[in-house]
């Protein structure tokens, strides 16, 4: 396996100033002709440097240089490149290749989905379309001609503006597209086939109109309203909050059922997984609506952060991804808060923040602690597709958020303007971004810099922060000691201290925030942000009343694992009184976590003091009318099994952990049945029509969170059965179905009804598969693995479709720990054989699925033995893709 290193970056020899592409689209054999105008990268550069083009699985027809056909002695062709040695500094290259889209199951390059053509070029798919310098620092102006059969492929789209459209004699037609903006090849896209669109015209800030279109396969126009609305909101929001306007006359979104990822920000022609476009109340849950809005926003925001300024090389991926995730998170938060009063708005924002942090803790913290740990700006990779990770994306967003915290909104926006002034139209680096922010910071705080802050870009691993404090009654001082450390990660044994922004509050025993008066060190406090920069630091606060409890990392101000010396009483106090909703939620989660661990370590005993405290806290939460429904739904929900697995100090048996969590759930349900029922019923009897907004979604969330407790036994299960039947929306219907399928002895009739109702709706069927694939080991009818094996044989199952594959395989191996980790090892064996099967079909998706055992070294010894056997089975397979090979070999260490 070849490893690529960030330090090896060198500039290419040539620019490609213009790129003309011509496609004769045919499922079995598409002819791709290109005409590339090249010039020297450095003006002073010598003659005779080679032109280096990437290409894979291409059938080369001919190469012409400045009009002269090159015979084979004048170029070198390998499996991955076409090299023209001794090339002139400047000239025109013409290349013709043939490709076979119908055989492309990898879904990278040009492929077919349901008879239509799509492309996916990021990161390195363009090289599967034609020979080209397939690297993000080569920006070119593209003009694209598409020729296709008119009847089979009436709609043909590419990036930019439609400049010509004609019928051709032989039943074919032709369109010509010109993208006014230079772009790297990974932003190229084409789509061709049978589509219909919803469209709307808007007016840009400069008074010019722009056409917005959402294209889908016929029959799906009843699912596009919300995506269109989200797009308009995103455009408006980027204008308002970032001062960034749409730079195109035409902005298109096209949905496909076969897509490796969520969506792709190709210039002016975003291609989306249907999962992040389709939304109507019957088919999409509140979470789906939220995801559609955020992904539509995300791809749109890439138009500036990603496309106008792109990445110099793929090690800089977080430059666009971390920043764009930060932007989409802020967009969603602003949308959720829109139109609410101040208190409701704060609560809606907190709910969004909690949701985002849950993802980070459940998925990114394990990544940072496992064999794939990497800095948000990696130093090396074998397969770049494996580095579209929660670290690069979500931790990357946290690193941007910390800069936002340190600078404040106004200076952060100033930093954004500096960034665009310096780098618009360029391929930039993470360093360029931080340098722009540093300039903005120093405009207001000339004595500060981001030197130490840059460690967040270069160092992997989640920092551990331990916090302890004592009160000096005589001086009315609270002395807070913070210590930070970061465990070794692959290739990084020791790490200098991080610059960690700690948003802090001091909560007095009456529940009020005290004013912050920092005595020492001088200047470490800015507003409510403590700058924590040393391995160990002591902070002394003055004027502190007795009984005051510090609230640390409010709003999750840094992506760290905190161990604070709270007593149980203090945690319960914060869960009741912290004025920061994030920390209030977090304190409660810590109480639940400790209670579950207490049960886990006592083999099921619920009489311990942590369980008792959790129960009292639960009773309080259920009765507290001052909390919003959305917040309360999160506050009463137990931490996920993946989060608990990570938090436990020592080796874990996920099956026993599941049962411990289940025991607490049953105990809390039994003790609080009355209030739970009251909460449920107050929200179940409403009759208003479904609407997606923070308040309505919060209400449904609390209703379903209450039902989740109530369904531990029959009376609650009857409620779920009637909710399933009477639901007028997918949130309530699927919520009930999930609970029945996971808890009731028999949910076959509901599962059958759901199947019959939605058998023509692929995304709803994915949910049907997923519900069953996540049935836990505690299910009363026993052995859910048999059900999963049956799902794999179901006529509607299809490993080639990534959404369907994920709905069973990822659901079972990553979201169903008690079945996946069953002690016999059969779960691991099933996973291994599916990864091997998928490896041959779609290496990129197989690479994702291959990560299910990343954290196997945290399993109990006998499970480790089973896990190793499964990993070795995959490793021994002939013909492993680089994607799967990298993951498995790193896991085996
Ligand atoms: N930029 C795309 C990522 C596609 C990568 C495929 N290997 C999605 C996004 O972050 O918007
Ligand atoms: Zn992105």
What does this structure look like?
- 53% of the residues are buried.
- The protein is 42% helix and 20% strand.
- A hairpin with a 4-residue loop joins strand 20 and strand 21.
- The mean pLDDT is 98.
- The radius of gyration is 28 Å and the shape is globular.
- It is of the alpha+beta class.
- It starts with a strand and ends with a helix.
- The strands form ten sheets. The protein has an eight-stranded mixed sheet with strand order 6-5-9-3-2-12-15-14, with no helix packed on it. A five-stranded mixed sheet has the order 17-18-19-21-20, with helices on one face.
- It is built from 26 helices and 34 strands.
- The longest helix is centred in the middle third of the chain and has 34 residues, at 390-423.
- Zinc ion binds next to helix 2 and helix 3.
Short précis:
This protein is α+β, with helices and mostly antiparallel strands and 893 residues long. The protein is built from 26 helices and 34 strands.
Low-confidence stretches: none
**Oligomeric grouping of the chains:** single chain
- The structural class is alpha+beta
Per CATH, which architecture of one domain? Sandwich
Name the strands of the widest sheet in spatial order. 6-5-9-3-2-12-15-14
Radius of gyration: 28 Å
Bound molecules: (3S)-3,7-diaminoheptanoic acid, zinc ion
Distance between the termini: 15 Å
Largest sheet: 8 strands, mixed
Kindly report the average pLDDT value.
98
Number of strands: 34
CATH superfamily of one domain: tricorn interacting facor f3 domain
Strand content: 15-25%
Helix content: 40-55%
* Shape type: globular
- How many H/I helical runs? 26
Text of the CATH class of one domain: Mainly Beta
CATH topology of one domain: Immunoglobulin-like
Protein name: Aminopeptidase N
Cofactor: Zn(2+)
Pfam families: DUF3458, DUF3458_C, Peptidase_M1, Peptidase_M1_N
EC number: 3.4.11.2
């Amino acid at each position: 396996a070849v490893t690529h290193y960030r330090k090896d970056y060198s500039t290419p020899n040539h620019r490609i100033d213009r790129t003309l592409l011509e496609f004769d689209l045919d499922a079995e054999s598409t002819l791709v002709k290109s005409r590339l105008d090249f010039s020297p990268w450095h003006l002073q550069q010598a003659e005779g440097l080679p032109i280096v083009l990437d290409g894979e699985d291409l059938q080369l027809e001919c190469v012409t240089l400045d009009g002269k056909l090159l015979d084979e002695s004048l170029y070198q062709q390998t499996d991955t490149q076409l090299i023209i040695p001794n090339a002139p500094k400047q000239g025109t290259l013409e290349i013709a290749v043939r490709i076979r889209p119908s055989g492309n199951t990898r879904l990278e390059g040009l492929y077919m989905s349901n008879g239509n053509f799509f492309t996916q070029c990021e990161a390195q798919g363009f090289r599967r379309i034609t020979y080209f310098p397939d690297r993000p620092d080569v920006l070119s102006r593209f003009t694209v001609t598409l020729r296709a059969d008119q009847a089979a492929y009436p709609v043909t789209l590419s990036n930019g503006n439609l400049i010509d459209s004609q019928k051709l004699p032989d039943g074919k037609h032709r369109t010509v597209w010109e993208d006014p903006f230079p772009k790297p090849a990974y932003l190229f896209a084409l789509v061709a086939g049978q589509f219909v669109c919803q469209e709307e015209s808007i007016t840009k800030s400069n008074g010019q109109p722009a056409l917005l279109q959402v294209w889908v396969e016929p029959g799906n126009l009843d699912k596009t309203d919300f995506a269109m609305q989200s797009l308009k909101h995103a455009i408006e929001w980027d204008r308002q909050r970032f001062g960034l306007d749409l730079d195109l006359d035409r902005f298109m979104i096209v949905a496909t059922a076969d897509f490796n990822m969520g969506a792709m920000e190709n210039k002016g022609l975003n291609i989306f997984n249907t999962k992040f476009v389709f939304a109507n109340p019957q088919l999409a849950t509140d979470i789906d609506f939220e995801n559609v809005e955020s992904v539509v926003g995300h791809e749109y925001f890439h138009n500036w952060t990603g496309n106008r300024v792109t990445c110099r090389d793929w090690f800089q991926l977080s430059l666009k991804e971390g920043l764009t995730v930060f932007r989409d998170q802020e967009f969603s938060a602003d949308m959720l808060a829109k139109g609410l009063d101040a208190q409701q708005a704060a609560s809606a924002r907190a709910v969004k923040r909690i949701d985002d942090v849950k993802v980070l803790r459940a998925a990114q913290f394990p990544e940072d602690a496992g064999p794939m740990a990497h800095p948000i700006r990696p130093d090396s990779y074998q397969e770049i597709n494996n580095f579209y990770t929660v670290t690069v994306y979500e931790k990357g967003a946290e690193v941007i958020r910390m800069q936002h915290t340190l600078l404040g909104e106004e200076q952060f926006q100033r930093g954004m303007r500096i960034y665009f002034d310096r780098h618009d139209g360029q391929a930039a680096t993470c360093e360029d971004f931080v340098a722009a922010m540093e300039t903005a910071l120093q405009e207001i705080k000339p004595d500060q810099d981001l030197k130490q802050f840059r460690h967040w870009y270069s160092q992997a691993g989640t920092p551990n922060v331990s916090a302890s404090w004592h009160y000096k009654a005589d001086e009315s001082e609270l002395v807070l000691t913070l210590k930070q450390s970061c465990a070794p990660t692959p290739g990084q044994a020791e790490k200098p201290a991080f610059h960690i922004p700690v948003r802090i509050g001091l909560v007095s025993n009456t529940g009020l925030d005290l004013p912050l008066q920092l005595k020492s060190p001088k200047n470490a406090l800015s507003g409510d942000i403590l700058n924590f920069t040393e391995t160990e630091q002591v902070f002394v606060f003055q004027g502190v009343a007795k009984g005051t409890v510090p609230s640390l990392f409010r709003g999750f101000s840094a992506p760290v694992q905190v161990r604070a010396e709270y007593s149980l009483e203090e945690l319960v106090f914060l869960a009741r009184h912290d004025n920061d909703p994030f920390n209030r939620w977090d304190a409660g989660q810590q109480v639940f976590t400790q209670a579950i661990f207490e049960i886990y370590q006592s083999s099921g005993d619920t009489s311990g003091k942590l369980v008792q405290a959790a129960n009292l806290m639960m009773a309080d939460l259920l009765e507290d009318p001052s909390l919003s429904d959305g917040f309360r739904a999160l506050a009463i929900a137990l931490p996920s099994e993946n989060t608990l697995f990570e938090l436990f100090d020592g080796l874990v048996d996920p099956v026993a952990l599941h049962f411990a969590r289940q025991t607490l759930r049953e105990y809390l349900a039994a003790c609080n049945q009355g209030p739970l029922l009251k909460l449920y019923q107050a929200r179940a009897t409403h009759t208003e029509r479904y609407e997606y907004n923070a308040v309505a979604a919060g209400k449904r969330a609390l209703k379903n969170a209450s039902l989740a407790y109530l369904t531990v036994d029959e009376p609650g299960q009857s409620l779920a059965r009637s909710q399933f039947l009477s639901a007028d929306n997918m949130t309530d219907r699927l919520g009930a179905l999930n609970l029945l399928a996971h808890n009731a002895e028999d949910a076959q009739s509901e599962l059958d009804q759901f199947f019959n109702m939605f058998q023509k709706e692929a995304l709803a069927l994915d949910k049907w598969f997923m519900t069953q694939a996540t049935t836990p080991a505690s299910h009363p009818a026993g052995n859910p693995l048999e059900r999963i094996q049956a799902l794999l044989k179901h006529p509607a199952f299809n490993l080639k479709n990534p959404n369907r594959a994920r709905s069973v395989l990822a659901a079972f191996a990553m979201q169903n720990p008690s079945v996946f980790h069953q002690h016999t090892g059969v779960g691991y064996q099933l996973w291994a054989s599916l990864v091997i099967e998928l490896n041959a079909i779609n290496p990129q998706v197989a690479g994702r699925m291959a990560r299910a055992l990343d954290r196997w070294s945290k399993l109990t010894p006998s499970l480790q033995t089973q896990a190793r056997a499964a990993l070795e089975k995959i490793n021994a397979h002939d013909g492993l893709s680089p994607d799967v090979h990298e993951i498995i070999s790193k896991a085996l260490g």
